[in-house]
Amino acid sequence: MVHHPVFKSLRPYLTLPFTLFSAVLAPFTLVSPGVAIDYNYGQCIADLLEVGLAADAVASACASALRPDQVGSCVLDVTTATEISAEVALAACSRDRRPLEVASCVVNIHNALAVGSSAAVLNHCHRSILPARYADCVIDTALVAEIATTESMALCIAAGYRPVDVAPSFIPAR
Q1: I need a surface site. Which of 48, 78, 122, 171 has the fewest CB within 10 A?
Q2: Nearest to 76 by CA among 40, 116, 104, 38
Q3: pLDDT digit string, tens, across residues 120-143
């Protein structure tokens, strides 16, 4: 049906509205002049070299990062606040889509709770979809419910809990 001669002759007229629509919306989809996006590769390299990583690993990590300045800051924050090695921190921060939230998650949990394993905290913060929210859950659960940090981390990362019979059912009862 698409290859019918009528459709071939109408093709220019059918694409015209979409072309005009996209031309009108194009200025609104671009970054506004007041917002500057700066992919600061130099800051990433400086931060990663500061924590003692090898130059070739630093160059590769910063070059392949979506937000290089955030990856460098994440590694620097994690290694400063914990005893995690720079290589482990780089592996977690460079593979996450929210590196700054991962760093704040790790730092906040370390500052608020007694942590047995920093690597476990980093692993859980990295695995979480929303690391900042995860940190709040872990800290509040551990402090208010007075349970161990590891148990609190396990409870907050679990996605298996699904509430049932919360909303009314529209299926008539027999």
Answers
A1: 171
A2: 104
A3: 999 999 999 899 999 999 999 999
